[in-house]
């Protein structure tokens, strides 16, 4: 069975500071990994995804994530936080590999303060 | 713009009644859609996989007679919460695999259900 662990339910950073949201996964097959962002009372927006190939994946809004198989990690980073980045972030793994139903982590709420 | 749309965005219903939520794929055909449920301040939990033209596949612990899923066309899946109770109040989100962009999975805007 696959699972996702997001370390830190709440992360707070200053505007302009580095954003690092941690995600570790467990999968018996090569995983497809995703990061989604959710703003209050809204659906999910895809930030980026890893399927195969290059392990450093660049997404929207300046976010990127690196797939590290040896560490079973897919941490999300952004060099400089903006106030508009404040939201809930979910890491997910596709069950069984490929594009299938997603298993989500518990989520990390990012707060950005002036 | 949105590639997956849900309706309604908000719905309030009385206990014991049924409510239907629609999930539409816009401008593409989705043979498979997924329904998730999200309680406040919690993560998304998969409820069921909706397959066009066949029965939905429900996750363990999800009552299939309570959460009826119909995927009658390649662009529409519906979730009907039957005999709703206050504990069914939640945020319901659907997703579909978009053939373009390498089968990226897109989510609908979500539907808030409040049962009073």
What does this structure look like?
The complex is a heterodimer of chains A (114) and B (116). Chain A is mainly beta and 114 residues long. Chain A is built from no helices and eleven strands. Helix content of chain A is 0%, strand content 54%. In chain A, strand 4 (33-38) and strand 5 (44-50) form a beta hairpin. The radius of gyration of chain A is 13 Å and the shape is globular. Chain B is mainly beta and 116 residues long. Chain B has one helix at residues 100-103, and strands at 4-7, 10-13, 19-25, 32-38, 44-51, 57-58, 67-73, 76-81, 90-98, 104-107, 111-115. The relative contact order of chain B is 0.33. Classes of the chains: A mainly beta (114), B mainly beta (116). Chain A binds chain B through residues 34, 36, 41-46, 49, 51, 90, 94, 99, 101-107, and chain B through 6, 34, 42-46, 49, 93, 95, 97, 102-110, 112.
What does the secondary structure layout of this molecule look like, with pairings?
The complex is a heterodimer of chains A (114) and B (116).
Chain A: E1 3-7, E2 10-14, E3 19-26, E4 33-38, E5 44-50, E6 56-58, E7 64-68, E8 73-78, E9 87-94, E10 102-104, E11 108-113
Chain B: E1 4-7, E2 10-13, E3 19-25, E4 32-38, E5 44-51, E6 57-58, E7 67-73, E8 76-81, E9 90-98, H1 100-103, E10 104-107, E11 111-115
Parallel strand pairs in B: 2-11
Antiparallel strand pairs in B: 1-3, 3-8, 4-5, 4-9, 5-6, 7-8, 9-10, 9-11
């Amino acid at each position: 069975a696959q699972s996702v662990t997001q370390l830190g339910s709440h992360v707070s950073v200053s505007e302009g500071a580095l954003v690092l949201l941690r995600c570790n996964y467990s999968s018996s097959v090569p995983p497809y990994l995703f990061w989604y962002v959710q703003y209050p009372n809204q659906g999910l927006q895809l930030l980026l995804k890893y399927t195969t190939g290059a392990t450093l994946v660049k997404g929207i809004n300046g976010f990127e994530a690196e797939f590290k198989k040896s560490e079973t990690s897919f941490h999300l980073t952004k060099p400089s936080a903006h106030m508009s980045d404040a939201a809930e972030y979910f890491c997910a793994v596709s069950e069984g590999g490929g594009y299938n139903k997603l298993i989500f982590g518990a989520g990390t709420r990012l707060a950005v303060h002036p | 713009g949105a590639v997956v749309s849900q309706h309604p965005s908000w719905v309030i219903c009385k206990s014991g009644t049924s409510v239907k939520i629609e999930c539409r794929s816009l401008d593409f055909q989705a043979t498979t859609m997924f329904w998730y449920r999200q309680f406040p301040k919690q993560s998304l939990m998969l409820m069921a996989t909706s397959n066009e033209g066949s029965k939905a596949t429900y996750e363990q612990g999800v009552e299939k007679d309570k959460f009826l899923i119909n995927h009658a066309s390649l662009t529409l899946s519906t979730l009907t919460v039957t005999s709703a109770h206050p504990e069914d109040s939640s945020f319901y989100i659907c997703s579909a695999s978009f053939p373009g962009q390498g089968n990226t999975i897109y989510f609908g805007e979500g539907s808030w259900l409040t049962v009073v």
